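lol ok so funny story. i was supposed to be doing the assay writeup but got distracted and ended up predicting the structure for this chain instead. priorities right. anyway since i did it might as well share w the group, maybe its usefull for someone
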Amino acid sequence: MRTLFYGTPALAVPFLDLLARKSEVVGVLTNPDKPVGRSLRVQPTPVKACALELGLPVFQPERPAALAGELSALRPDLAVAVAYGKILPKEILAVPALGSLNVHFSLLPKYRGAAPVQWSLLRGENRTGVTIFWLEPELDTGPVFLRQETEIGPEEDAASLFSRLGALGLQALETSLDEVAAGRIRKAPQSGEPSFAPRLRREDARIALSRPARQIHDQVRGLRLWPTAYLELVPPAPRQVRVLSTALPSSSEGAAGGGQAAAGRIIRVERGGGILVECGGSSSLWILTVQPEGKKTLAAADFLNGLRLGPGSDLPLAL
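and the output, tada:
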């Protein structure tokens, strides 16, 4: 089976490797190289680097539609897309004889869009999964080939969930490729209420302690990779402090603040560990590890000690 692959980040690399083992990959589409890091040196995308190691032809169009003729000449039977980063136009989708499969990290139609893993955590979901579906010109609307479900752990964050869904997606794609090769092609319409997972913005990461603790905990989990959740403080404290891990208190700990104090009041300090702070909705949250702007990661209690604050004090939150 002759195939095309569309993908860009490191997440997509194992899927390209799988496709190369299961088929004859005749072309790889990835985003154009961009400058990265402080040096702003132009670096190949992870998928491009993998494709070159495998000896596969690479295409990096600014406008994929312009490549339709060139890709058609390769006579692909099937295409597979994993986090390509652009909506593929109808001219490209018409190229493979059988169509194009996409590996999407949610249970479609829930969380259509660019950040399904993060938004499933941000919204406190307890189940998610992987959907292998057929691409259409509209965003994540195509018929389903296969779905695999999994539970989300109560303390799982974006990093660990991405890792698990990546492994689940590889299994699902391998099964799908075997089915396609055997002529067993399924196209089941998506069913259920759609929801959307738009691209994350830096402003999504600012923590408002006036919100309920559960929502803040889910924000920290969901934004563990980028953009990391942060508290905005006023001088002389660091302006921004990234919050890397949190925990919901036990029922007895949660009652310690009584919900009477203003959001940001420090209830308890665990020496060398976390700090329990008052949040909205008569709730409280353990802030465990933080990273002040331009500094190393440290326990929240150690950061608080540097500010000379303790139980009964208020975090110097910016309005």
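The longest strand covers residues 283-292. The chain has a mean pLDDT of 94.
back to the writeup now i swear
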